[in-house]
């Protein structure tokens, strides 16, 4: 049998860091939402007890470093599944971009193998498993819009009636999440986003208010390390996006746009600066 799962990209509408914890992680407060840019994952049972990963993307690991491999191994070990699986990752989400491509592949693998092998694992349990693979994986298991706390694994769903365009532009650099968190001085953050007001703007469908309040404290680090990301924000603002922010640890910058008539102009303007540009919708 062969099954398919979509692994969507996420953006962070806000990202606040409250403190550094003793375990090395940071206590965060983030509002995350999915957009309709997705990897397509094919999973097929194998007669031998083995995990094989392939992908058309030449720049991701295909061995045990791949997050989809780790997800498959975890579910096999934890539920004592003595079966094999072939997993093909049709990558569309740019890698190491702040869009959680690897985390979403891992989450989709957990959902898919739960179906393929008829394991009946409840969603909350898949999220607990996902947290062992990465802080963003539990959110990616369900998607939607959520407030994430803890190190990102504690989730509260948020009702999000907003529908808008999201323009993504990834400067041609790779950013390491652990380096960015490592360089953040959590005790001296200059501008904390007002998470509660952002949540109220989303729930109240106040798009302009949301755009005005977008905030990500990791910009303090990434924009200093990589001036290209600051430039990308400036270009997107100049082209007329309604709200502009870096996603996650970067380097992808996203612009929220309410009017479809503006999307093509912003998209075409950005293509003059950068190859990786996408015009997508925020997923309900
Ligand atoms: C910054 C964010 C925002 O959504 O996303 P990305 O930029 O990666 O997409 C996440 O917090 C990233 O989540 P994820 O990529 O799953 O991180 P993990 O694999 O758990 O951790 C990678 C490294 O980041 C640091 N880390 C991660 C999460 C956290 N709350 N505090 C941390 O300090 C740790 O140094 C850890 O070793
Ligand atoms: N299935 C996968 N897709 C993309 N990257 C992966 C995958 N598995 C492991 N990785 C590795 O994970 C790292 C982070 O990738 P990704 O999840 O795309 O970025 P981010 O955490 O910034 O959103 C990269 O260095 C990449 O090599």
Automatic annotation (TrEMBL):
Q: In which pathway does it act?
A: Isoprenoid biosynthesis; isopentenyl diphosphate biosynthesis via DXP pathway; isopentenyl diphosphate from 1-deoxy-D-xylulose 5-phosphate: step 3/6
| Gene3D superfamilies referenced in this protein's UniProt entry, alphabetically | 3.30.230.10, GHMP kinase, C-terminal domain
Transmembrane stretches, start-end:
none
Q: Which UniProt keywords apply?
A: ATP-binding, Isoprene biosynthesis, Kinase, Nucleotide-binding, Transferase
Q: Which domain of life is it from?
A: Bacteria
Could you tell me the Gene Ontology terms of the biological process aspect for this record? isopentenyl diphosphate biosynthetic process, methylerythritol 4-phosphate pathway; terpenoid biosynthetic process
Q: Does the keyword Secreted apply?
A: no
Q: Does the keyword Lipid biosynthesis apply?
A: no
**EC nos:** 2.7.1.148
Under the heading SUPFAM superfamilies, the entry gives: GHMP Kinase, C-terminal domain, Ribosomal protein S5 domain 2-like
GO MF annotation: an example: 4-(cytidine 5'-diphospho)-2-C-methyl-D-erythritol kinase activity
Q: What is the similarity comment for this entry? A: Belongs to the GHMP kinase family. IspE subfamily.
Q: What is this protein called?
A: 4-diphosphocytidyl-2-C-methyl-D-erythritol kinase
């Amino acid at each position: 049998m062969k099954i398919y799962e979509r692994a969507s990209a996420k953006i962070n509408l806000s990202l606040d860091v409250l403190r550094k914890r003793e375990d090395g992680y940071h206590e965060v407060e983030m509002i995350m939402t999915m957009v309709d840019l997705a990897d397509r994952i094919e999973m097929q049972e194998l007669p031998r007890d083995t995990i094989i990963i392939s992908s058309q993307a030449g720049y991701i690991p295909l061995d045990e470093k791949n997050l989809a491999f780790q997800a498959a191994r975890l579910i096999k070990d934890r539920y004592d599944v003595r079966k094999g699986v072939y997993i093909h990752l049709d990558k569309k989400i740019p890698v190491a971009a702040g869009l959680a491509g690897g985390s979403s592949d891992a989450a989709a693998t957990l959902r898919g193998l739960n179906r393929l092998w008829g394991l009946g694992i409840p969603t909350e349990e898949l999220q607990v498993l996902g947290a062992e693979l990465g802080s963003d994986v539990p959110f990616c298991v369900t998607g939607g819009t959520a407030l994430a706390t803890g190190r990102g694994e504690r989730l509260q769903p948020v009702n999000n009636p907003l529908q808008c365009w999201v323009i993504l532009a990834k400067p041609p650099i790779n950013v390491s999440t652990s380096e960015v968190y490592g360089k953040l001085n959590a005790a001296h953050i200059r501008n904390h986003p007002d998470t509660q007001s952002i949540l109220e703007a989303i729930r109240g469908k106040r798009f302009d208010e949301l755009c005005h309040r977008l905030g990500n404290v990791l910009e303090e680090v990434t924009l200093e390390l990589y001036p290209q990301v600051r430039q990308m924000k400036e270009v997107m603002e100049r082209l007329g996006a309604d709200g502009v922010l870096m996603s996650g640890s970067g380097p992808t910058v996203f612009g929220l746009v309410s009017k479809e008539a503006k999307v093509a102009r912003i998209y075409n303007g950005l293509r003059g600066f950068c190859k990786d540009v996408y015009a997508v919708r925020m997923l309900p």
